[in-house]
Specification:
- 4 copies of one chain form a homotetramer.
- Chain A is globular and about 65 Å long.
- In chain A, helix 3 packs across helix 8.
- The first copy, chain A, has a single domain (about 5-355), classed as 4-Layer Sandwich (Chorismate synthase, AroC fold), CATH 3.60.150.
- In chain A, a hairpin with a 2-residue loop joins strand 5 and strand 6 (about 75).
- In chain A, about 65% of the residues are buried.
- The first copy, chain A, contains 8 helices and 18 strands.
- In chain A, the strands form 6 sheets. Chain A has a 5-stranded antiparallel β-sheet, with helices on one face. A 5-stranded antiparallel β-sheet of chain A has the order 9-8-10-16-11.
- Chain A is an alpha+beta fold.
- Chains in contact: A-B, A-C, A-D, B-C, B-D, C-D.
- Chains A and B meet through strand 1, helix 2, helix 6, strand 11 and helix 7 of A and strand 1, helix 2, helix 6, strand 11 and helix 7 of B.
């Protein structure tokens, strides 16, 4: 359904061309001094129209906070936030009313629900992620203030271009300095050119987002089913366009032997650490204090300008060439979304772990 | 926590060396004629000691059904099943009492809970999956009888050996005919030899399981967060030793352009289908009627006979060489587990979709 | 938390004096032609300022629908609705900033969260029920259109005045014709006078709401924990000011013997019915097709004009006399709320029962 | 479904005449030294055959613990417990195979599921509560050891006989000293005689259980829907035979005015208390530190020896006179069950409140 999380819980709502999109955040700890500009900052990182590498659809995407905050502090009650849909142009989509766009959700929504909002993706639009980003911005503040945890995501790969990035040292400034949000200054310009070429070619590209969470407390993750890696995987695979998730050594690690792959423990001045991090920061589904590192595969944007074979809702073969506004490569806007979902998962697990603390109530 | 699913819901319990392991299946539709031998068949596929390629630990793993069934039929009430732990040898593990085994869950469980069952992995043992397999065997019966849905999983890759398998035609018989459960008869013997070599070398191997679900009804999956791909990812990443999940084109698809990647729709005698299946059978997180195809990465078994650097619970550096019984490669026993979790996810989603049927009650 | 329901699920948010109050309805069946005026009708029944028997606080309470509906029909996606807080007068509450009002939630919220919105009850305000009423209005439409189920609630008792009402024949028109929403025309004027006397006396009254659901399908309710009576009890006891719930014979039935209390079955032209309805329409926690009949006790409004002993947040004894706007008796506005929660519970259970239908997918 | 609780979560299973009944307790805090004899003590209080006032069905009801405990301490993993059904006599029930017993769940289970275990109530049997009692015994230990919270339930009323009991001073010893578990020594013998008369008369009686929880931490309860009173109401109304729940002043309080009913705050040596406790220990759905006091109505046992009118499964009118073993009054065995569910609710809320503690992880 449209709710995610057990103790820190978000419920998102909204279609791309309805009145608004939004989120209700339940379970936010009380007395948190909430920085609304930090929420807007994340929404701005996600919003369309940032450059010619993203969709030209212009949306202010200004967040409104409707509840849960009093005199700048969280009340412990649900926080409701919304963003109005201002630049919706349903007329752009009229020609799609009866057509199933290839690799979009038109066909499956119609089959599942017997109805769909054909104006630009409806609930399946990436615009749905606005609520996630706003909620994630709150989660980030909790993690940063209470645990000094930092979460960063960036473009690791676009099409066939892959960038080396040091997960220990990469910074937000480096990521944001790149128009494609790839912190490797050698590869970033090539990626930008590759995306622009795809745009000119009326085609689209996919790629890989890598995320790192640093300074994560030891002990987060709730076996058996709510292991940290499982919750992260669900969070990422619930995003539009994602096709894969891997943590630590991932698929590449399957070609190593156990003796090559195991992460040896050692004692670093009283703190138990591992020499390598093939585990990606979790063992037995629980954080071990090393960096959480994972990757998410995004398919190339389904909306392209090139002509495509498809069928209409009556089953007739038709040719389709998109004329709406769209991104040639969604990865540029994806880091804020991946960071948000990571923060939501970690905050939820943090609260769940705190519940185990047996200190008597004051 | 230890419960998975929304309407078809399993709760597993048990440590590897406690009294028993088991599962409670809640939400099973009533009046299903339950084939207990089919449950046992799946447990036998999972159990250790099947050949020299698996751990020599011998467990009968005979399922007992304690509730929820009356005169051979399900009552709609919870089905409780258990398997006793008979061949536990805690003495095998005494030398591990104070040691953190590399890439095992010893350290993280100790940190999270302040206590752990050091006898063979405890709750983090793969023995925990017995409950999943028993529950999944029931889910398989529901899917087969009510929707004619078939689920198969098999070894796609061991170490650097990869097998071509046709997802449209592969059969259970082909899978079970291979001692490593790779249905490709050319690669299967090489894999067997590779595993045996690792065993002799006191080392271990990882690999990839591929799964296909055929004849899945259109419309399964519950956006936004409980998309089919998200639930499958969570299910797989909740398993021990899994490091990655990808569906359809997965990570490989990120090097294609949109025009190459999109799955064109066409009308096949009244049924709308796609020419390719890069989507892996889901679009917008909802099944589209094509085969569901996904892959799961398993790391090499953490338990190896080779000497390894690690620390004990006091933080002292120690050298560890495992002497317990273990698998050189868990993938041989993994297909039953992957199939089970797939069946549980699909059954849960099937029931959720049925709830949308607005036909008045009789 | 702030979410209720398993398949038909509502999430409410909002404080009495924040920007707005609202609800997200998740799991609403698709393709329902939604009558927004029916939603507004229910909100109008709940809103303050209807007569001198309710609080003079004037609120338009006009619902805005932000998502989930397209061309007048539900999409199956979350339906977000809100009502702006327009007539909030925080200055009315300034004198309460440091005072714990007796039998209000001021003290417990402060202790639980370490912070509270002291402007008029915050989240504990009855204004929170707006979201429930809006969601319940949708549930009512589902039940009425798909199952012909009718739900009515009315004032059964005010203070010491009790009204006889025939649960088989009472109508909405009869309820709404009474300014106190008691459909018994003999007792209604006495109740109105009793409430007005309490108002003049700067005091308040409590009472009992009775609800009946007619034409409920047989088979609703999910043992063991989600029995129909249990879900109804939770729904009612989650409302502000409720102190008790009883179904069927309730507490009064405890003075009967089994032979007096048992509801004999008989065959009424092919339909199995009971001669009496001491069970209140459920047996084993499952609806049996008879009327669901239950009662809810509401305490007298905690806010009164009379001087009261209390303490401030520093623990100093103070005397308090309310000067804000308030209801001398909340029961007059409660029927819409009780009906709403009843409809939400029944719709949720209806969808859960439908999921058991084993008809193959089309 | 068959799971209750959010962080401290129980899943019960089992029919009265299947192989066993049991429970899985998930979320139990780790490192708790578990007293199994205390669990057995509670089961003994609940078990049949304690005296001629209860059913003569003899069951040892010895609990077996199958997981979650290691060297006497909880692991933080699921605790599985079961009790075998030993004295089941299905032949006693053969004559009921085709008959719907009045005010039992036979008819509704058959309608809901299309199948039922006709051997003695199946899942609707009070035997289902064994799992609750075992789980509740663990919850009691948590509350007692970590918060010094004490929970007691006792018979307040049988048929028309009501006992005065001081909720501040009543003890377990007083309750257990009475064969009917009424701690008032004046009324207890009358109640015993009344029950015995009903037994001789082949009839049955109902009554009221009162429960008190003392020394409950301030701040438990999770608005809006999971208020403490709401969770308690659900827990109690999920029990077999319960018809009503009231907290504090309950239904009786509806005849008071606000000025009579409000609980004045005062400062008792630094602790804020209330002069009266009409609120029953919760305000705004959150515990305020006063005693939690509530009452639960139980209908007279549906199984009676007297002849009754009913129908069979074919709709034919038949006369029924029970010959199976049964209780003339279930209230005698109910205190252990009510205490268990109270403890489960409080423990769950305690853990949820702890999650709000913002102290950084160590």
């Amino acid at each position: 359904m449209n709710t995610f999380g057990h103790l820190f819980r978000i419920t998102t709502w909204g279609e791309s061309h309805g009145g608004a999109v939004g989120v209700v955040v339940d379970g936010c700890p009380p007395q948190l001094a909430l920085d609304i500009s930090a929420i807007q900052f994340e929404l701005d990182r996600r919003k369309p129209g940032q450059s010619h590498l993203t969709t030209p659809r212009q949306e202010g995407d200004v967040v409104e906070m409707l509840s849960g905050v009093f005199e700048g502090k969280t009340l412990g009650t649900p926080i409701s936030m919304l963003v109005w849909n201002k630049n919706a142009r349903p007329s752009d989509y009229k020609h799609l009313k009866d057509v199933y766009r290839p690799s979009h959700a038109d066909f499956t929504y119609q089959q599942k629900y017997g109805i769909r909002n054909w104006q630009g993706g409806g609930r399946a639009s990436a615009r749905e992620t606005i609520g996630r980003v706003a909620a994630g911005a709150i989660a980030k503040q909790i993690l940063r203030e209470q645990e000094d945890t930092e979460i960063l995501a960036y473009v690791k790969q676009i099409h066939t271009l892959t960038a080396e990035v040091d997960t220990n040292t990469v910074t937000l400034a480096q990521i944001e300095a790149s128009p494609v949000r790839c912190p490797n200054p050698d590869v970033s310009p090539q990626m930008a050119e590759r995306i622009d070429a795809a745009r000119r070619d009326r085609d689209s590209l996919g790629g890989v987002i890598e995320a790192v969470a640093r300074n994560v407390p030891v002990g987060l993750g709730e076996p058996i089913f709510d292991k940290l890696k499982a919750e992260l995987a669900k969070a990422m695979m619930s995003l539009p366009a994602t096709m894969g998730f891997q943590i630590g050594s991932g698929f590449g690690g399957t070609t190593l032997t156990g003796s090559e792959h195991n992460d040896a423990f050692y004692n670093e001045e009283g703190r138990i650490r591992t020499r390598t991090n093939n585990s990606g920061g979790t063992q037995g589904g629980i954080s071990n204090g090393e960096n959480i590192v994972f990757q998410v595969a995004f398919k190339p944007t389904a909306t392209i300008g090139k002509a495509q074979e498809t069928v209409d809702i009556h089953g007739n073969a038709v040719e389709l060439a998109a004329s709406g506004r769209h991104d040639p490569c969604v990865l540029v806007r994806a880091p804020a979304i991946v960071e948000a979902m990571t923060a939501i998962v970690l905050t939820d697990q943090l609260l769940r772990q705190r519940a185990k603390n047996a200190a008597p109530s004051p």
